[in-house]
Amino acid sequence: MRLRARLALAFALLALVPLAVVVLPTLSRLRDTLSRELDARMQAATASAQESLERSATTARRAVEELVESPAMEDLAREARERPTRAIQAGTAEALMKTRGLTVLALFDRGGTVLSSGHLPARRGDPDPALFAVTRETSSKPVPVRVDVRTSSGLRQMPALVTARPVDYGDLRLWAVGGVLLDEGLAQHLARLTQAQVTLVSGDAEFARAGTALPPTVSREVPLGEAATVKLVFSRAAAREAEEGVMRAFLLLAGLGGAFAVLLGLLVSRWMTRPVEALTEGARRVAEGALDVQVTAVASGEVGELVRTFNHMTSEMRATTERLVASERIAAWQEVARRLAHEIKNPLTPIRMSLETLLAAQEARHPRFPELFKESAGVVLEEVDRLRRIVDEFSRFARMPKPQLAPVDLSELTQSVLALYSTPPEGIRILPALQTGVVARVDRDMLTQVLVNLVKNAEEAMAGKGGDLRVRVKGTDADAVIEVEDSGPGIPAEHRARIFEPYFTTKEGGTGLGLAIAARILQEHGGKLEVGGEPGLGARFSIVLPRSEGMGISAPVPVS
Ligand code: ADP
């Protein structure tokens, strides 16, 4: 992963981690608080439901007590002692029940037969053991029981809170059993009170329901003996919504924060990595040999220091290289001078000897002095000629004029050089392969001199035995190349490093300056001369020049 991406990621993490560290515990605390709050609400609601049931029971008890102690009841009892069937009729209990605000009331005789029933008038004359059982309760509080009632859908059992009180008149004993039905009305009252959904359940049957509770829900049960259970269902929707709201806010924050952090990370890393990247690029270019690289990226602190050090290092390297090159050049010239002196010394010995011979002959008045003189003068002249040649060659080498550059089509130039060899020596075949349109800016005369030299060397290498001389012109994107390849003996490995040295020659009468001059010419052109080929199989010399864009030359000049 690149430094830039890593930094952006680090920034994003840096933004998200604290957010997560803050939000996740907050969320869990919020959940706790909400559920505690719900618990408390449920507890309170359950308590108030219980209270409300209690109150209903108390009201029912009072109503029954007041009823049995009322003068109306006393009158009824008295009359019933005398004429029971007339005094207590089917509607009697209903009238009493309604005036007292009760929903259950039955008048029993001592034996448990219903004399009159307010909630189920049809029961008159029949026993109702379930309801009559309440008379045996020891507690004065109402108890939950199931009571038969007539509803629109027929006879039904419904839970009720009922209590029983005796009514005595002389030897007559009646029982008044009354209370309140746990019905729809109660459920609605409880639902309003608790904000929950209230269901009254008896056994498996649900007989009243009021209020609503959106899911998700939790429920509580308030048992009322065996007769019934009040089920309270509370909604957790509001709490859930609050949690989700916080979660949404967190996600939004995380998304925005993350995006912002990544953006910031990218910006910062760009700002931070730009000098580093510039340095990397600079180092790469130095490795490729460009010593004058200077990094211009603006940076402060340690990176700025690094940039300054890098720039200092490259300029130092450049200076050092220049010094090295200069001292190498001096050393090379010293070598040239040494060899030149050696070359000059060689003809001096025969000249001196000739002159000494002449002087001795003249002193001795040698009879063959005239012939000796002629002979010696010939030697001296010959050696002087050799000296002049040496000096001429040297001055050609030393006085390298500045090349006059102009765009030249290399295949055209090569063709004109090869035209000089239209009749090659015996056994030598010249095989040109010239790509057209390969153009370089060169000094035409100088490049011709180089090429002539390479072709001449190739021919000399194959002299006697014969062989193939391949001359190619080819271009890459950056380079323009002329190759001269022969099938001669090639260059032994131990000579390879030396063939470009001035005065290195393996030939009888060779000057050893041809390749040295060619290499210098190409150097002046910003190009180079490369040597290749296999010893024993042939030599290959490549002229490599910087290629320049076309100059309108496309058609090759025909070979003359
Ligand atoms: P000269 O031709 O006067 O010897 P050069 O500088 O042209 O001087 O060549 C130097 C030496 O390089 C030659 O003497 C020879 O040994 C070697 N050389 C040059 N060209 C070739 C070639 N095509 N095949 C083999 N050897 C070569």
UniProtKB/TrEMBL annotation:
One function term, GO molecular function aspect: phosphoprotein phosphatase activity
Names of the cofactor(s): Mn(2+); Mg(2+)
Catalytic reaction annotation: ATP + protein L-histidine = ADP + protein N-phospho-L-histidine
EC number: 2.7.13.3
Manganese recorded as keyword: yes
The entry's keywords: ATP-binding, Cell membrane, Hydrolase, Kinase, Magnesium, Manganese, Membrane, Nucleotide-binding, Phosphoprotein, Protein phosphatase, Stress response, Transferase, Transmembrane, Transmembrane helix, Two-component regulatory system, Virulence
Enzyme class: transferase
The name this protein goes by in its record: Signal transduction histidine-protein kinase/phosphatase MprB
Originating organism: Myxococcus stipitatus (strain DSM 14675 / JCM 12634 / Mx s8)
Every HAMP domain range: 270-322
Subcellular location as annotated: Cell membrane
Record-annotated Histidine kinase domain positions: 339-549
Pfam families: HAMP, HATPase_c, HisKA
GO CC annotation, single: plasma membrane
Bilayer topology: Multi-pass membrane protein
Keyword check for Transferase: yes
Primary location group: membrane
Regions crossing the membrane: 249-268
Domain of life: Bacteria
